[in-house]
Amino acid sequence: MTKKVIPLIDHRLLAPVLPTQLETPTGLIMDAAGRPLHDLRISVTDRCNFRCVYCMPREVFDKNYAFLPHTALLSFEEITRLAKLFIAHGVKKIRLTGGEPLLRKNIERLIEQLKRLRTPDGQDIDLTLTTNGSLLSKKAQSLKDAGLNRVTVSLDALDEVVFKHMNDADFPVADVLHGLDVAHQVGLGPIKVNMVVKRGVNDQEIIPMARYFKSSPFILRFIEYMDVGASNGWKMDEVVPSAEVVQRIQSIFPMTPLPANYTGETAQRWHYEDGGEAGLISSVTQAFCSDCSRARLSTEGKLYTCLFASEGHDLRALLRGVGSDAEISTVLGQLWRVRDDRYSELRTLNTDGLTPARKKVEMSYIGG
Ligand code: SAM
Ligand code: SF4
Ligand code: SF4
C-alpha cells in the first residue's frame, strides 16, 4: 500500500525538525521511553484572581505583568479541534486548568463541545477541571449541566491567616469550603483537594487539614512544593518530603498504603485505619516520570511534553495557517514519539536537589 505524502509543514514552527515525508497517523502512540499519550491538560487562561506565593507571586505578577491578549488565546473551536486529534492518538482524560479556568468567559460552552468528543472505540472522555474554588459555588451547577465529570479544588490551609497569606488575595477559607460543598451536592465527584505544602509557611496545617478531610466526602492530596517556573524562588529546604508528611500524620492518624488505581497515577494513596483516604504527590522526592503520560496545551496553543519544558511547539500557527487535520495530527504523533522528558527524575538523582539552570515556563501559563 502506498503511503500518503503530506506536504511539508513550516519547520520554523516546530522542534525537532520533521522529516520531509510524514506518515498518516495510525492512532495510539508511544514516546521514546515507551510511555503512551493518555492525558491532556489544557490551560484556558493565564490569568488568576489569586496570587499564590508558590505559583504567581505578586512581586512578579503585578499590574505591569503582560498577560496574553485575548486574540492570542485559542478559541473554544480551536481547542476542541485539537482535543479531537489528541483523542485519536490515545487521550482519554482531559483536564481544564490555568491560571484560574473558571475566569475564562463561557467556559461551559467549551465543556459542552469537549463532552461531545468520543475515543476511537466510542467511549466518553473523562473531563475534569482544577480550580482554586473561588467561583465554584456560583458555577458548579452550570459546569455539571455542561457535562463536566468532576473537579479538583486547591486549598492550602484551613487557618484564615495562613490561607490568606498563601493566596495573597485576601480570599477567605469559608468560600472555598462552600464551593466544595456545592460541587459535591451537584455531583461533580469524586472531588479531590490539593494542598501544596511549603515548609515554614503552611506545614503546620498538615494535621488540621488531614483531620478535617478524612471524615469528609473529599480526598485530600498533599503536594510537594515544586520548582516550576522561574518566579517562585524555590528552594529545596522549603519542600516537605511526602515521607515526612506521612510520618507526621501517622503519629496521630494511623494509615496504610493502598495500591494505585491505574498506571501513571500521580498520587500515592493511603487509607486511614478509621476510614477515609489521603494522597501524596511526591514530584520532588519520588519522581514518577517513568509513567508520565501527560501532554500540556498552553493558553496560546503551544504543546509542552513536560511541566518543566523550556520550549513548546506552536500548534496555533498550524491551526490558523494551512494545517489540515491530517497534518496537525501527524505533527502531534511526531512530537510525542520523540518525547524523552524526565526532568523530575534527573532532579531527584541530583543529590543536592539542584538541577542545571534552564529556562522554564510558568505553571499559570502551561497549566498545572
Ligand atoms: N488555579 C487553579 C488552582 O489553583 O487549582 C488551577 C491552576 S494551578 C496552576 C493547578 C495546581 O497546581 C494547583 O493545585 C496548585 O496548587 C498547583 N501548583 C501551583 N504551583 C505549584 C508549585 N510550585 N508546586 C506544586 N504545586 C503547584
Ligand atoms: Fe492561581 Fe492556581 Fe496559581 Fe494559585 S495555584 S496563583 S489559584 S493558578
Ligand atoms: Fe512528566 Fe515532566 Fe513531571 Fe516527569 S517532570 S512527571 S516527565 S511532567
Automatic annotation (TrEMBL):
Which positions bind GTP? R41, R95, T130, K192, R294, A295, R296
- Family under the similarity heading: Belongs to the radical SAM superfamily. MoaA family.
Residues annotated for [4Fe-4S] cluster 2 binding in this entry: C289, C292, C306
What catalytic activity is recorded? Answer: GTP + AH2 + S-adenosyl-L-methionine = (8S)-3',8-cyclo-7,8-dihydroguanosine 5'-triphosphate + 5'-deoxyadenosine + L-methionine + A + H(+)
Which superkingdom?
A: Bacteria
Q: Which UniProt keywords apply?
A: 4Fe-4S, GTP-binding, Iron, Iron-sulfur, Lyase, Metal-binding, Molybdenum cofactor biosynthesis, Nucleotide-binding, S-adenosyl-L-methionine
Q: What is its EC number?
A: 4.1.99.22
Q: Name one GO biological process term.
A: Mo-molybdopterin cofactor biosynthetic process
InterPro entries in UniProt = Aldolase_TIM (IPR013785), Elp3/MiaA/NifB-like_rSAM (IPR006638), MoaA (IPR013483), MoaA-like (IPR040064), MoaA_NifB_PqqE_Fe-S-bd_CS (IPR000385), MoaA_twitch (IPR010505), MoCo_biosynth_MoaA/MoaC (IPR050105), rSAM (IPR007197)
Kindly give the HAMAP family that the UniProt entry links to this protein: MoaA_B
Species source reads Glaciimonas immobilis
**What is the protein named?**
GTP 3',8-cyclase
Task: Tell me the cofactor note.
Answer: Binds 2 [4Fe-4S] clusters. Binds 1 [4Fe-4S] cluster coordinated with 3 cysteines and an exchangeable S-adenosyl-L-methionine and 1 [4Fe-4S] cluster coordinated with 3 cysteines and the GTP-derived substrate.
Biochemical pathway: Cofactor biosynthesis; molybdopterin biosynthesis
- CDD domains assigned: Radical_SAM, Twitch_MoaA
Name of one Pfam family that matches = Mob_synth_C
- Cite the binding residues for [4Fe-4S] cluster 1: C48, C52, C55
Cofactor(s) demanded: [4Fe-4S] cluster
Q: Which NCBIfam families match?
A: moaA
The Radical SAM core domain extends over: 32-259
